Amino acid sequence: MADILPNSVRYVKNGRGGRWWNAAKADGQIHLGWSTIPGPLLCTADLTAIEPLIRSEFGARKGATQDFKALRTLLDHPSQHVWVTFQEGCMWWCTVTDMIETNPNGETNDRGHFWLTCASRWNNFSIGGTRRLATAELPGTIAMLAGYQATVCEPSASADILRIIRNEDDVDAHAAAVARAAYENAVARMVTRLGPKDFELLVDLILSRSGWSRLAKLGGDTEGIDIEVENAATSEIAFVQVKSAANQAVLDDYVSRFNNRRERYNRMIFAVHSPTGNLSPRTDQPVSVWAGKQIAQLVVKLGLGDWVARRL
After folding, report:
1. Of the residues 122, 153, 168, the one at which a domain ends
2. Domain holding 91: CATH number?
3. Is the pLDDT of residue 224 over 80?
4. How far apart are CA 253 and CA 238, in angstroms?
5. What are phi and psi of 245, to 5 degrees?
6. Is 1 or 95 the better-scoring residue by pLDDT?
7. Can you spell out the DSSP letters for 153-207?
8. Is it the case that residue 151 has pLDDT exceeding 70?
9. Residue 105: which of 114, 94, 92 has the closest Cα?
C-alpha cells in the first residue's frame, strides 16, 4: 500500500474548528464549505465559472486568490494527494476519489456543503499500524500544521509526512540508531572486562543517575545483598545484588531471599555483566535483571561510556 500512495500531500480542515470532523470520520469523507457556490459547479469542477463568484464574494477584501486556490485544489483531481488533518490529539490521513457530492440539505452544523469520498478512510496510524500518529510525538515541522487556520494548504514538511505515514525511517535517525547499536555492543564488551570493584561502582553510578541513592553496603547477616538503595521520589527501598557472573539458579536463590524480606524491600535489582544463559526472574514480583545488553544500554543512555573506557 505504501507504494501506491500518492506522492503529494495536502492539509485540510473539516470545517471551522473541525466542526464537521465527526461526520467526516464516521462516513469516510472530507467535508467542506463554500456554501455560496452552486452544487452543479462544484460537481463539474467548473473553475472558470467558480472563480468570479469567489472574487465577487470577497469584494475589495484580500483572500480571494487564496480561497480560489484552496477550492481548486479540492476540485482538481484530489485523488492525486494524500490528505491530512489534526483531530483528537493525532494526525489523521486519507486518500480520496475524484467524486464530489453535495449536501442535499445545504451546509449544516454537522455536515458540510459538499464532500469528497475517501478511497482509504481516515487513519491515525502509519501503514501497517505500527506507529500511532500522536501530534505530541511528531516532528515540530509537522505538528505545527495543527494550528493552521485556513482550509487547505500544501505542507512544507510533505516529504516527512509521507515518510512517517509509510512507516519509513529517517535516513539520519537510522544511521544514528545503527551507530548507537554498535556503540552499545562495544560498551557491553568493555563492561565484561571491569574488575569486581569497578563493576560495583558502575552499578552504583547507574543507580544514582536513575534516582536511587545508596543507604548501605550490606554483609554479615544479610550476606549476598551487596547494596541497599532508596528512591526518595517513590519512597521505595530496594536491594541490589551485583555479580560478575551468574546463572539462573543463582538468580532464583536471590529472588527467594528477596521474597523473604518483602517487609522491608519494595523491589530487587540483580546486576550481572556476564550471565550464563537468558536470566529471568520467573516471578510476578518486582524483580529487575540488568544483564549484559541491558547494562550496556543503561551505560549509554546515562552517559557513562567514557567512565567505563577510562577503567580499562
Report:
1. 168
2. 3.10.590
3. no
4. 16
5. -145, 150
6. 95
7. E--TTHHHHHHHHTTPPPHHHHHHHHHHHHHHHHHHHHHHTS-HHHHHHHHHHHH
8. yes
9. 114
What is the pLDDT of the chain when averaged over all its residues?
Answer: 91
Instruction: At 282, list the grid cell.
Output: 520467573
Domain residue limits at 285: 173-310
Q: Which backbone phi and psi does 251 adopt, to 5 degrees?
A: -60, -45
Statement to judge: residues 153 and 42 lie in one domain? yes
The pLDDT tens digits of the residues spanning 238-252 come to 989 999 999 999 999
Q: What share of the chain is helix, strand, coil (3-state, %, to 5)?
A: 40, 25, 35
Domain boundary among 133, 168, 203: 168
Query: Could you give the number of structural domains in the chain?
Result: 2
* Pair (110, 130) in one structural domain: yes
- Alpha carbon dihedral 28, 32, 35, 41, in 10-degree steps, equals -80
Q: Which residues are CB-neighbours of 208 under 8 A, at least 6 positions away?
A: 214
Quickly state the pLDDT bin for 85 (edges 50, 70, 90). very high
Rg, Å, the chain Cα set: 30
Task: State the cell numbers at 285.
Answer: 514480583
